[in-house]
Q: What sequence folds into this?
């Protein structure tokens, strides 16, 4: 009898959640007059990603280009309808002008189950997000970056010493750059966000790196399955208290942060890192201080702070608040920055003429410094370095899409008589990766061409088409830090080594279907010390 009852319950659940969901929203876009790709049963238009037949970037570009003459089009993530915004004017309208109607990002996590993630700036909603943005924004100004730059330089010098030692002992080495750059990024985040000094290139299995890699590895099949289940059945996951990330990993990082804070308070230790800035924010002593230097851009890709970030912030930060900001800082630094760096290394290897032009600028800058080390302000004056980084972020955008959720009803005028009515909870997406490959905005998009961002050409780039750090008030608060990290790493790498392809380098590089932005066979390059030329 019990077995029969369980079978009936299972059948009921299957009918309710699988069959019903399989046909949910079938005519959603048809009823609204929006052109869309015909969805497949249950998987919608996401089947090629779920079955790993296409890379995320390929899928985004195909979906984006399916309706080349439309300003908007429709697609389905499983059975959830997403309005794709293709037109840069509409992008600016929704992300900037009408921001108050679309403040939030989507969030599949449950606050009570994953507070260390949900309290992060990336996922906070409404006024909670506004308060935290205003609290954190002063931590990422140019003046704070200048203070942190020395920590990044220390990690970069550590990297140079490691490769030189390996070369001396073993001969010229070949490295898989995603792993190499992940270790570099890990060390930078460890020192800048957690106040911990590690050398992950030398100590390959240090605890901080292994735990961080495990935490950020979203390509694991079990992790993917869990996230898909959470996305499809949020109420069940809430009832079962399903956590997105292993509690032991969260506990490890919680202890690292709280122990560091307690030690600093007790011993009056001041260090120019994120923990110090968050401790200052908790005491209400972190505020915006604008100066002439502050106005200087950190590069073409820099996003400027809106007035929301310059208001008075939250003064009652909890331990969970601080943990969440450090964790999201870790996620961003470990995964997206290391992705950007590894693809940059690939482009340098396969474009030796661009690498040598960059080396000329690096060498000239280094000679002008004399015996002094590179500093934040000098780094920002390197025009060709900025052009190279900007172009790499165009071609290999670490986060190839943006999403926003409607918080207040809004009617979007899409032109040609089409008006789209957003209801509370409706979602729109921007395929930034596809925009960056649209030939009407970036001719010959497959070509790596830093000249797109030269002084003569950068004004030709249409606002709303180049979005490596997002757009509007909810752009990436850490764009200055990310650019500083990428540029500093590249400066030290190019100054000391030639980045060269060899028999292990996949040319042309192909993206894997297993994660958002990663190469199919790794990014293998040879680092040849320039002193041996």
A:
């Amino acid at each position: 009898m019990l077995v029969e009852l369980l079978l009936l319950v299972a059948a009921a659940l299957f009918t309710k959640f699988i069959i019903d969901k399989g046909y949910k929203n079938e005519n959603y876009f048809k009823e609204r007059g929006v052109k869309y790709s015909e969805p497949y049963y249950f998987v919608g238009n996401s089947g090629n990603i779920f079955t790993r037949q296409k890379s995320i970037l390929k899928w985004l570009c195909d979906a984006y280009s399916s309706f080349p003459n439309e300003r908007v089009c429709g697609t389905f993530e499983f059975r959830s309808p997403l309005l794709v915004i293709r037109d840069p004017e509409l992008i600016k309208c929704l992300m900037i002008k009408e921001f108050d109607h679309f403040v939030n990002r989507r969030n599949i996590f449950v606050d009570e189950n994953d507070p260390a993630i949900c309290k992060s700036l990336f996922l906070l909603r409404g006024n909670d997000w506004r308060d935290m943005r205003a609290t954190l924004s002063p931590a990422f100004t140019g003046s704070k970056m200048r203070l942190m730059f020395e920590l990044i330089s220390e990690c970069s010098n550590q990297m140079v010493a490691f490769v030189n030692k390996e070369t001396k002992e073993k001969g010229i080495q070949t490295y898989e750059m995603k792993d190499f750059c992940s270790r570099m990024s890990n060390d930078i985040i460890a020192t800048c966000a957690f106040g911990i000094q590690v050398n992950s290139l030398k100590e390959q299995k240090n605890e901080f790196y292994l735990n961080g890699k495990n935490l950020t590895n979203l390509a694991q099949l079990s992790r993917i399955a869990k996230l898909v289940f959470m996305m499809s059945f949020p109420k069940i996951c809430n009832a079962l208290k399903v956590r997105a990330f292993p509690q032991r990993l969260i506990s490890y990082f919680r202890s690292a942060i709280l122990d560091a804070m307690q030690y600093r308070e007790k011993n009056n230790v001041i260090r120019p890192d994120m923990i110090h800035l968050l401790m200052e924010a908790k005491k209400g002593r972190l505020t915006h201080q604008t100066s002439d230097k502050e106005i200087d851009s950190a590069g073409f890709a820099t996003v400027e702070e809106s007035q929301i970030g310059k208001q008075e912030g939250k003064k009652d930060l909890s331990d969970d608040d601080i943990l969440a900001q450090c964790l999201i800082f870790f996620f961003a630094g470990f995964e997206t920055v290391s992705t950007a760096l590894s693809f940059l290394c690939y482009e340098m290897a396969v474009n030796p003429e661009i690498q040598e032009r960059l080396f000329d600028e690096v060498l000239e800058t280094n000679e002008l410094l004399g015996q002094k080390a590179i500093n934040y302000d000098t780094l920002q004056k390197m025009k060709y370095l900025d052009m190279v980084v900007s172009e790499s972020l165009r071609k290999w955008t670490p986060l190839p899409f943006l999403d926003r959720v409607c918080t207040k009803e809004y009617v979007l005028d899409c032109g040609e008589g089409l008006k789209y009515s957003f209801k509370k909870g409706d979602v729109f997406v921007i395929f930034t990766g596809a925009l960056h490959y649209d030939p009407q905005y970036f001719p010959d998009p497959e070509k790596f061409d830093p000249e797109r961002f030269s002084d003569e050409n950068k004004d030709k780039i249409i606002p709303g088409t180049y979005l490596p750090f997002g757009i509007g008030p909810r752009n990436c608060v850490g764009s200055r830090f990310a650019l500083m990290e990428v540029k500093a790493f590249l400066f030290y790498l190019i100054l000391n080594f030639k980045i060269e392809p060899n028999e292990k380098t996949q040319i042309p590089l192909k993206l894997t279907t297993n994660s958002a932005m990663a190469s199919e066979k790794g990014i293998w390059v040879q680092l040849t010390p320039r002193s041996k030329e």
Summary: The mean pLDDT is 87. The CA atoms of residues 132 and 368 lie 41 Å apart.
